[in-house]
């Protein structure tokens, strides 16, 4: 029964009943209505002791945001209670979600021992509305009488549990003895098989331990959980009645349980579709999970099987993981039969809920696809990237048929493309791919395809088939597998057989991907680092990590993919342990994959030995330091040479100490202004920079003899220096007896190299300075005793001074050059030399009978040689040769030169054969004299701006029809003219 409360008016109906009363509240121009549902006549609460409140709008729907503004105030007369009512006696609707635009809330009532009433008043935003009052009556219960309630009367979600609660009105508290006198009667009103677990003969006694009620600590209520056993029922209704000790029903102690399994099945699809039965089953009910069984069997005898059997079943689970809906298929295996009829039945708890007979018949495809060579399904390397697919028509195919059939496949990484256009074929129709307009029944067409691996090392294509043929899966190619050849080249930086010292422990390797694809982590992990013959106790590290032989992978080393063609450098470190030398070979090892590797790279490291040589030496050559004389002799040059197998760093140079053995007391040795202290000064002190392997540096030391007229000592490089042959140098100096001390130096130039930089007329002149380092003035007589000496294999024709006077070696003296040379004075003399026809001059001019250490200077001159081809004027010219040949013109744009001083070489493509003049010239070359076009093969002088002619000839019978020709002219190994030409057969 439903009662509607209205603030406008109320009506009293006929005797014995009450017409609905309506309370209509207007607030903020919104009208709300309050209804009371689930009451009996005269607004009396039923024996279930519950009713519902419903609030709705007169017009429109209540939205979620409005529920917080609505409430019902309860005023109670009597001792009955609204269960859970707060201290303010207010029923709130804040948490209630509107259903179909209305608010509905169930109210549980606890009856008392007195006749009671509830006055219910609807409020909006806390404001009472006059007249919006409804009275609900509650019958009393007898003191001590028992009442029965359940936690849920309706179970429609598949759950099978519910709880009964027994309480006594007005009693001091429940007692176990009193409860044992009660019996729960259970009657199934609907359903055929469902029962309550543990119930025998429809009644439940609370006397047995397993059946006893659980009494709450406040002894106001006793509870027990019961379980529904559905058996084969999907729905059932149970009536629960509490009986007293006489077996009579207790008033207000009756409940009704309405249960169903929450499963509402719907078969939305069961149909045949090309070699498979497709199904779709859904649970539209509230149960979260349902297990159903799909059964099938043939209606008549057949050889066709579904999912591997003629008669079978499949269990299907419908739950939240698939949205309580399951799609699937049963593959059809055709045998000799081409059609059949199957009966399908869907069962739930062994009870059939759906049945259907389904006829099926095989669809004949229009075309058949296969590999032209069925044995070729696995391919390796770049050379095996091409396949052919064959298409055979199973009926006459028109142009429209071919356009409707497309090629399809599933692939990993790569794509299939046409061999002739490199166009992807997936999804393309056969009309375009095969370039045909029809295909007769039984006829075959082939398609050439190429595998494009997209820089991947491995490609798999599966289920290669046609779509739109009427039965796409009838014929297909199961799989094509292509695998690339992994080629990683191991290289090194420098000669790994010459690593020395701490610096040499760091070695650099190169890893080059010469595969035709990128190498990813999976591939690089299959390539292992392999070393052999590693010295015992030694190891090799990378980035602080130990390289484990045949275990450490290239991925461990690189940590990133190696792109095709990419080279990556990686340093490794030798950890020698206690070894003074470490040897091993490093290579690559492939696991289950072909790896192209060179011969393993040998590595040799040794603990470095410091070796520094010391000797008397200046820019001219070796100096005898045991014959130092006079003031000039106090300064002497020493050359230091790094004879170690490594560059010497600061730490190395500080280990080499200068020791001055037998140096007289009071004598000081200086380097510049610095005093050299024996056994304290190091090589780093006198030359603070890295000392490269094989390099030298020169230093000039000064002896301060004090009062001594002669000094002798040995300068030795001690400390960690392991040099044994040239470890020390002996130094002997004497004041002398007034011998001349004249030194010779270059004037105005730091290096005695003379070249023509103007490319014009050049005068071969040079200047020298003569300096008296002694303390005595030198007159003509003294100077006449010091002679000039000329030495060397490449001397000029003549050397002159003072307006053409000729210098004669061993004859000309300093007195011929100037009349006197005072102590400390310097005089400059200009010389002129005649090179004659020579293109290079190199000689030494020195002094005889001078005690100075600097008595020689080197003079070096090179002719300025430049040539150019003026015919043809540029590279790339194409020429032909026959009996007359092809004429080249070579012009001298530099100094006059002898043709014998020039070499001519050429290179041609293999198989070609030419002549320059009468010479068959190769890469080694011949003198230019031999190929110049002239009558007599003798050297000629080629003046500046003059030209010579060279004839190229061939017999025109070569196998080649064209060839590249490169002609080079050289002077002293330097290219002075080059021309690149192309020859074609005439």
Helix and strand topology:
Layout lengths: L1 E4 L18 E4 L2 E8 L1 E2 L3 E2 L4 E8 L12 E8 L3 E2 L7 E3 L10 E8 L5 E9 L2 E12 L7 E5 L3 E2 L5 E8 L7 H5 L2 E8 L4 E2 L6 E3 L8 E2 L5 E9 L5 E9 L5 E12 L4 E8 L3 E8 L6 E9 L6 E2 L5 E7 L6 E9 L5 E10 L2 E11 L5 E5 L6 E3 L5 E8 L5 H6 L1 E7 L2 E4 L11 H5 L9 E9 L5 E10 L9 E7 L4 E5 L6 E2 L5 E8 L7 H4 L2 E6 L6 E4 L2 E2 L7 H5 L8 E9 L5 E10 L10 E6 L5 E5 L11 E2 H4 L1 E8 L7 H4 L2 E6 L6 E4 L2 E2 L7 H4 L9 E9 L5 E10 L8 E7 L7 E5 L6 E2 L10 E8 L7 H5 L2 E8 L3 E4 L3 E2 L7 H4 L8 E9 L5 E9 L7 E7 L4 E5 L5 E3 L6 E7 L4 E2 L3 E7 ...
Parallel strand pairs: 14-22, 32-38, 40-47, 49-56, 58-65, 67-76
Antiparallel strand pairs: 1-3, 2-3, 3-6, 4-5, 6-10, 7-9, 7-11, 8-10, 11-12, 13-15, 15-20, 16-18, 16-21, 17-20, 19-20, 21-22, 23-24, 24-28, 25-27, 25-29, 26-28, 29-30, 31-33, 33-36, 34-37, 35-36, 37-38, 39-41, 41-45, 42-46, 43-44, 43-45, 46-47, 48-50, 50-54, 51-55, 52-53, 52-54, 55-56, 57-59, ...
Describe this structure in words.
The structure is a single chain. The chain is mainly beta and 986 residues long. The protein folds into 8 domains: 2-138, Macroglobulin (MG2) domain (Immunoglobulin-like, Sandwich), CATH 2.60.40; 146-260, Immunoglobulins (Immunoglobulin-like, Sandwich), CATH 2.60.40; 265-361, Sandwich (Immunoglobulin-like), CATH 2.60.40; 367-483, Sandwich (Immunoglobulin-like), CATH 2.60.40; 501-606, Immunoglobulin-like (Sandwich); 612-729, Immunoglobulin-like; 742-862, Sandwich (Immunoglobulin-like), CATH 2.60.40; 867-984, Sandwich (Immunoglobulin-like), CATH 2.60.40. It is 5% helix and 47% strand. It is built from 10 helices and 76 strands. Strands 1, 2, 3, 6, 8 and 10 form a 6-stranded antiparallel beta sheet that branches. Strands 13, 15, 17, 19 and 20 form a 5-stranded antiparallel beta sheet that branches. Strands 14-22-21-16-18 form a 5-stranded mixed beta sheet, with no helix packed on it. A hairpin with a 2-residue loop joins strand 11 (116-124) and strand 12. The longest helix is centred in the middle third of the chain and has 6 residues, at 399-404. It is elongated, with a radius of gyration of 58 Å. The chain starts with a strand and ends with a strand.
């Amino acid at each position: 029964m439903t009662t509607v409360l209205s603030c406008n008016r109320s009506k009293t109906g006929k005797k014995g009943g009450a017409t609905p009363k309506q309370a209509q509240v207007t607030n903020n121009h919104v009208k709300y209505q309050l209804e009371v549902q689930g009451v009996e006549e005269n607004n009396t609460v039923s024996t279930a002791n519950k009713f519902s409140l419903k609030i709705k709008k007169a017009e429109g729907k209540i939205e979620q945001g409005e529920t917080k503004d609505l409430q019902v105030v309860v005023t109670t007369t009597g001792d009955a209670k609204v269960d859970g009512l707060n201290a303010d006696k207010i029923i709130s609707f804040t948490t209630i979600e509107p259903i179909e635009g209305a608010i509905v809330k169930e109210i549980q009532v606890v009856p008392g021992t007195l006749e009671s009433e509830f006055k219910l008043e609807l409020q909006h935003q806390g404001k009472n509305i006059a007249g919006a009052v409804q009275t609900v009556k509650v019958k009393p219960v007898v003191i001590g009488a028992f009442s029965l309630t359940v936690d849920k009367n309706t179970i429609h979600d598949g759950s099978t549990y519910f709880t009964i609660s027994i309480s006594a009105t007005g009693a001091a508290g429940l007692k176990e003895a009193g409860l044992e006198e009660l019996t729960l009667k259970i009657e199934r009103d609907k359903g055929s098989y469902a029962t309550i677990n543990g119930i025998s003969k429809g009644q439940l006694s609370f006397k047995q331990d397993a059946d006893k009620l659980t009494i709450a600590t406040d002894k106001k209520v006793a509870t027990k959980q019961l379980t529904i056993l559905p058996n084969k029922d999907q729905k059932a209704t149970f009536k629960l009645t509490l009986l007293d000790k006489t077996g009579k029903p207790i008033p207000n102690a009756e409940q009704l349980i309405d249960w169903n399994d929450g499963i509402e099945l719907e078969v939305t699809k069961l149909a045949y579709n090309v070699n498979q039965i497709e199904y779709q089953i859904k649970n539209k009910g509230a149960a979260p999970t349902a297990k159903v069984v799909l059964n099938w069997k043939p209606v008549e005898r057949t050889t066709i099987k579904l999912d591997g059997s003629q008669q079978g079943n499949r269990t299907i689970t419908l739950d939240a993981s698939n949205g309580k809906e399951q799609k699937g298929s049963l593959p059809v295996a055709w045998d000799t039969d081409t059609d059949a009829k199957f009966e399908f039945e869907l069962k739930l708890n062994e009870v059939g809920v759906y049945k259907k007979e389904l006829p099926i018949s095989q669809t004949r495809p229009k075309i058949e696809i296969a590999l032209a060579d069925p044995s070729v399904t696995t391919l390796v390397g770049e050379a095996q990237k091409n396949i052919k697919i064959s298409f055979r028509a199973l009926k006459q195919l028109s142009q429209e048929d071919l356009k409707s059939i497309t090629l399809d496949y599933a692939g990993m990484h790569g794509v299939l493309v046409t061999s002739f256009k490199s166009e992807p074929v997936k999804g393309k129709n056969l009309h375009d791919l095969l370039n045909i307009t029809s295909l007769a029944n039984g006829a075959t067409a082939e398609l050439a395809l190429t595998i494009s691996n997209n820089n991947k090392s491995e490609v798999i294509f599966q289920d290669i088939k046609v779509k739109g043929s009427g039965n796409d899966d009838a014929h297909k190619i199961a799989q094509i597998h292509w695998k690339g050849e992994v080629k990683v080249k191991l290289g090194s930086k420098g000669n790994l057989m010459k690593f020395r010292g701490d610096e040499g422990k760091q070695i650099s390797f190169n890893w080059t991907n010469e595969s035709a694809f990128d190498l990813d982590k999976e591939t690089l992990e299959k390539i292992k680092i392999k070393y052999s013959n590693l010295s015992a106790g030694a190891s090799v590290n990378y980035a602080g990590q130990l390289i484990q032989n045949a275990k450490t992978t290239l991925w461990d080393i690189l940590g990133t993919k190696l792109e095709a063609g990419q080279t990556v450098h990686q340093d490794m470190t030798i950890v020698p342990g206690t070894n003074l030398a470490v040897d091993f070979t490093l290579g690559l090892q492939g696991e289950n994959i072909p790896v192209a590797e060179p011969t393993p790279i040998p590595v040799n490291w040794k603990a470095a030995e410091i070796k520094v040589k010391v000797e008397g030496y200046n820019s001219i050559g070796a100096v005898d330091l045991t014959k130092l004389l006079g003031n000039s002799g106090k300064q002497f040059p020493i050359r230091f040479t790094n004879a170690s197998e490594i560059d010497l760093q600061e730490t190395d140079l500080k280990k080499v100490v200068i020791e001055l053995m037998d140096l007289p007391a009071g004598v000081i040795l200086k380097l510049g202004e610095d005093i050299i202290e024996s056994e304290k000064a190091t090589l780093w002190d006198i030359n603070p920079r890295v000392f490269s392997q094989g390099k030298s540096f020169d230093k000039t030391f000064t002896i301060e003899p004090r009062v001594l007229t002669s000094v002798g000592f040995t300068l030795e490089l001690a400390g960690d220096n392991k040099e044994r042959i040239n470890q020390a140098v002996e130094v002997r100096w004497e004041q002398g007896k007034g011998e001349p001390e004249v030194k010779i130096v270059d004037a105005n130039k730091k290096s005695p190299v003379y070249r023509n930089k103007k490319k014009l007329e050049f005068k071969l002149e040079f200047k020298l300075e003569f300096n008296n380092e002694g303390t005595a003035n030198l007159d003509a007589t003294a100077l006449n005793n010091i002679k000039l000496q000329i030495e060397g294999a490449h001397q000029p024709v003549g050397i002159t001074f003072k307006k053409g006077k000729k210098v004669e070696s061993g004859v000309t003296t300093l007195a011929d050059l100037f009349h006197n040379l005072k102590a400390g004075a310097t005089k400059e003399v200009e010389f002129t030399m005649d090179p004659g026809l020579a293109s290079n001059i190199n000689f030494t001019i020195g002094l005889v009978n001078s005690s100075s250490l600097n008595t020689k200077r080197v003079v070096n001159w090179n002719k300025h040689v430049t040539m150019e081809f003026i015919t043809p004027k540029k590279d790339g010219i194409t020429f032909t040769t026959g009996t007359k040949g092809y004429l080249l013109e070579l012009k001298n744009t530099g100094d006059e030169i002898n043709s014998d001083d020039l070499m001519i070489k050429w290179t041609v493509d293999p198989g070609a054969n030419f002549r320059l003049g009468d010479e068959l010239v190769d890469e080694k070359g011949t003198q230019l004299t031999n190929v110049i076009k002239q009558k007599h093969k003798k050297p000629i002088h080629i003046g500046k701006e003059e030209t010579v002619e060279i004839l190229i000839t061939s017999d025109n019978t070569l196998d080649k029809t064209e060839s590249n020709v490169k002609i080079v002219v050289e002077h002293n190994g330097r290219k002075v003219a080059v021309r690149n030409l192309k020859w074609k057969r005439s």
